[in-house]
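Quick illustration, no need to memorize.
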Amino acid sequence: MGTTDVSPADAPSFSLELNDDQRAVRDWIHGFAAGVVRPAAAEWDEREETPWPIIEEAARIGLYSLEGFAQLYADPTGLTLPIVSEELFWGDAGIGMAIMGTGLAVSAIFGQGTPEQAATWIPQCFGTAEDPAVAAFCSSEPDAGSDVSAIRTRARWDEATGEWVINGQKAWATNGGIAGVHVVIATVDPELGARGHAAFVVPPGTPGLSMGAKVRKHGLRASHTADVHLDECRVPGDCLLGGRERLGERLARARSGARSKGQAAMATFEASRPTVAAQAIGIARAAYEYALDYARQREQFGRPIIENQAIAFMLADMKTEIDAARLLTWRASWMGRNGIPFESAEGSMSKLKAGEVAVWATERAIQILGGNGYAREYPVERWHRDAKIYTIFEGTSEIQRLVIARAISGVQVR
């Protein structure tokens, strides 16, 4: 489920021709999205509740499970995960996030934890097919969103008990409070800023962890988002992902001024950006396909509106932009899976492009539908609401541009 550092020459060749397994998985997920997810989308958007029956169905068929996620990550080309994400979010982004939101916590545990920690905690993130659970990744805070160096949640080591004690408040946590496993980013050395962060697993039922206010959102309403409070929250020493020895080495390098890899929050976000991009593409594609079908059927002045250049050109631009975003996403996914460095911030490029295309394409779809596009009886207004978050969460579009600018210039653009 992680990456292996290889040279580009040793990596599987990058191909736009999907193999038989990838096509089979794509079609399977599309069938689930079309038959189960999309018909329920409007209801759960209105209810603004976690769609447990659909999560349970996803668990029953093996999609929502450790084994299912492991198979997605195992593809050496790196393309199966974005393919699945696109299809699922084509069905509905809110329900898609309810199913896939656990993946961020899983990525943090796998990417930063030891093999023993991964074996212990990742299965608990999913629960069982009979009793599924969800997990939460808690990084953002009321005063620390894009600026992860401003994180105030503190973790201190209690030598007497051999425990970490965590205090703070997290905001915008997907599955926050309703999750079993929470992965929390906390500061262990405030003087080092983001380089003084570490990631901790907070096990299910840990005293001191509680859910704060649930966020009533513009979009992704079927996905639970809430604040998480940590009040003298004690976790065993082995809940520090990577262990104390590795943390000590990293902090020592940071204090000496040496270059330090692996800022806890940013490492997780960078790995997840192509997957998030694929989610946005799924929303954009849903809006494009719906608008295309509508334009073929809707008649004005005695002919289908697609025969008007203004409409046809708009759809042509939508298709072109969506395909361009997908190409960037597949490239970044292939590079990330095979440990090829993002020397030009290819992961950020994919997320930036896909997020902005999703907002733009869903707005175009509303325009093509006219007044119907603005009505809740038609899905494009929901897709537009869902799309907007993709220019905000896991790094705003402005932050992505900053990351890209720094990568291509080699200077500390501010």
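The mean pLDDT is 92.
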